[in-house]
Amino acid sequence: MLKISELRLHDVINVIDGKRLGMIRDIDIDVETGRVKSIILPGNTRFFNFLTKNEEVVVPWEKIVKIGVDVILVELSSTSQLQLK
User: Fold this and answer.
1) Tens of pLDDT, residues 25-54
2) What is the CATH number of the domain that holds 69?
3) pTM, full prediction
4) CA distance 73 to 66
5) How far, in Å, CA of 56 to CA of 65, rounded?
6) Is 61 inside a domain boundary?
7) Closest-CA residue to 36 (of 12, 59, 20, 70)
8) How far is CA 12 from CA 32, 33, 70, in A?
9) From which domain of life does this come (predicted)?
10) Domain residues for 67?
11) Would strands 64-67 and 71-74 be described as parallel, antiparallel, or unpaired?
12) Paired sense of beta strands 71-74 and 11-14, if any
């Protein structure tokens, strides 16, 4: 069993290009079913976050390939599959 607090300490890596996408910022849960819908990662920051809105990247749960001891592997064939929130 894995706790959400532990899940947030994992790095998220794209298996297609090996790029590190960051650590989980938040998790989107469907309250009716109790299932995780997506993980939310920090997006690109501009000008050191000074007077800019933080973007978030939403990765659908279906794109998660494997959750390991210290990393989460996702399969995103292109950055166009990333949803900005």
Assistant:
1) 999 999 999 899 999 988 764 545 454 556
2) 2.30.30.240
3) 0.75
4) 5
5) 20
6) yes
7) 59
8) 27, 25, 9
9) Bacteria
10) 4-77
11) antiparallel
12) parallel
What's the whole-number average pLDDT of the chain? 81
Query: Does residue 85 lie within any of the structural domains?
Result: no
One-letter amino acid at 27 equals I
Give the position of tokens 């989980």.
24
The amino acid sitting at 6 is E
Residue from 36, 35, 5 nearest 23 by CA: 5
How many domains in the chain?
1
Query: Using CA atoms, how far apart are residues 31 and 60, in angstroms rounded to an integer?
Result: 16
The vertex-67 CA angle with 30 and 64, nearest 5°, equals 55
Read off the tokens for 42.
């920090």
> What DSSP string describes 12-69?
EEETTT--EEEE--EEEEETTTTEEEEEEEE---SGGGTT-PPPEEEEEGGGEEEE-S
Tell me whether residue 26 is in a domain.
yes
